[in-house]
Specification:
Blueprint (H helix, E strand, L loop, with lengths): L2 H39 L9 H16 L1 H12 L2 E6 L14 E5 L7 E6 L2 E6 L2 E7 H10 L3 H8 L2 E3 L13 E4 L8 E4 L5 E4 L3 E2 L2 E6 L15 E9 L2 E8 L7 E8 L2 E8 L5 E5 L3 H6 L10
Parallel strand pairs: 1-6, 11-12
Antiparallel strand pairs: 1-2, 2-3, 3-4, 4-5, 7-11, 8-9, 10-11, 12-13, 13-14, 14-15, 15-16
Helix pairs in contact: 2-3, 2-4, 2-5
């Protein structure tokens, strides 16, 4: 075999070897990148948190940082489930001045000393009546990511009940088991044909808070705190799902709120509980309301 042919074979083998090394290196780099992406994707981020995973993350952080009652609540929650009751600031006015809703945390379904409040990105932690600290939600998530707690947050989130019944005895108004979640189909800003608004949020109707009340009568010393409170329940009347709302101090039996349709348009239709009479209909705009003045609704009588 001539010398030229030997040199040519050597050059081809060298090129093939370099190509194989390059491919292996590329595959290794891709593998590293994929593993990095998987690691990043497991990290907790504020914009991807559900409400239950947020509550779970806050509880785990407090248990790790503040120990004591927070750690007790967390350990009980792991065995049972994490219950978060949403309490009104009016019921806790002497304890949490100027705060929004109060989130009461328990791992056994009973009233405990562990609370937190949320104000935009700030979480304030309380033990008993004492404020422990205020920490940004991003700082909480960074701490949990640094301690590789994302899977733990996910597991606890699956056992978290937001809006749970926790009856007040030591804190807030006695007998108050927390704010209720109003059915989603009722929520929104609605208008009647005269332009009157009906505002329904997750916990309020026309500014009146909807509470779960465990006692038949609220004590007289709580009247001032509860003057804008109501109780509610879902009833089915003549095949129609009705949301029965009654103010705590009302002299009547309250009002019924239903969602009914006329063609493609939905309306919140209200009735008197006392008589069953139709009262009014509220639509997504005044224009739609005016276009549906002749709409017929189901009878509750």
């Amino acid at each position: 075999m001539s010398k030229k042919i030997l040199v040519l074979i050597f050059l081809i083998a060298t090129a093939l070897n370099l190509s194989a090394c390059s491919q292996n290196s590329t595959q290794h780099d891709k593998s590293v990148d994929n593993n990095t992406q998987k690691q990043v994707s497991k990290n907790l981020t504020a914009n991807k948190l559900t409400k239950t995973s947020q509550a779970s993350a806050i509880t785990i952080y407090a248990a790790m940082k503040y120990k004591g009652k927070w750690q007790d609540a967390y350990k009980q929650a792991v065995k049972n489930h994490l219950s978060i009751s949403i309490k009104s600031k009016t019921g806790f006015s002497r304890i949490f001045k100027g705060q929004g809703y109060i989130y009461q945390v328990t791992g056994n379904g009973k009233e405990q000393n562990t609370f937190y409040t949320l104000k935009k990105d700030e979480v304030s932690f309380f033990n008993h009546k004492k404020k422990i600290a205020t920490v940004s939600l991003n700082s909480i998530l960074t701490f949990l990511n640094d301690h590789q707690k994302s899977e733990e947050v996910k597991r606890l989130s699956a056992k978290t009940v937001l809006g749970a019944r926790i009856t007040s005895n030591k804190y807030g108004v006695k007998g108050d088991a927390g704010l209720a979640y109003i059915p989603k189909k009722l929520r929104g800003i609605w208008y009647n044909k005269k332009g009157k608004k009906l505002v329904i949020t997750a916990h309020t109707i026309e500014g009146e808070e909807i509470h779960r009340i465990s006692t038949a009568v609220v004590t007289t010393e709580s009247f001032q705190q509860t003057k804008h409170w109501a109780r509610a329940r879902i009833e089915n009347i003549n095949g129609i799902d009705c949301y029965h709302v009654q103010s705590l101090g009302a002299q009547n039996f309250g009002f019924l709120y239903t969602v009914q349709k006329n063609g493609r348009n939905s309306a919140v239709v209200t009735y008197s509980v006392d008589t069953g009479d139709y009262l009014d209909s509220y639509w997504k705009s005044t224009t739609i309301a005016k276009n549906n003045v002749n709409a017929e609704f189901k009878s509750l009588k």
